[in-house]
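EI: anyone free to look at a 248-residue chain?
SC: sure, send it
EI:
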Amino acid sequence: MSYLLKVVEASTHSDAFRRIVFTGKGIGPLLKASDGDAYVKLFFFPEGVKPPQDGDMKTLQKSLAPKERPQSRSYTIAAVNKKDKTLTIDFTRHSNGGVGSAWAETAAPGSWVYAFGPRGKYSPDPKADAIIVLADTPGIPAARRVIERAKHPKRLRVIFDTTLSHEELDLPEKVGSVTLIDSGRGKTSLRDEVGRLKLPKGDVEVFARGEKYVTKKLLGQYFRELGLPSKRVSISGYWSAPKNDKKR
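SC: here you go
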């Protein structure tokens, strides 16, 4: 089902994220999203294309010429306020632009966007003996949502590849361990840091979100070599680094 989301608040949350608060008619299902990585798909129309605000997204797409059709991107639902009937999304601020990032930079109260959802693929298992949460900066909103919904935060082992500080991340207390690295400085990588992690005995889950080559190729292969069941490893590539395109 498609929804028309209207911006009620927009702010620069940090150097890394632009925080947008939305509301909209009939968005109850979005506010009830329960998956640990619940997300919506947003649709961004080309500049100059002004579709009606009372249509259905699927119908609109069929009625538009190819060059007028929107590009879609998926975003984690960072927070909801059922009383105010709002939902919050943190948009990564990409230095090289990106259709969603560019839209968020100029979004202001009154701006609007179509959405599909909610969808989700993963929720932290309360029975797991340990959950390893891995992400680079674009993957942090999804990782944060998982962390906030873990019933046993002390069982979490979190590693983020980011320039953000512990204070800027402001993660929930009682998380088992949080390690921050910055691979941009060339001293280590997310894959290297995971290799140093001593996996606890028992049932281990993995949640990884980030650059496609790093998550799907390097991390995916590593966890397969460790013998972790595929159903206990949730990996998704959010973006592609040009330097890694030929490595796939």
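EI: The longest helix spans residues 212-226.
SC: 👍
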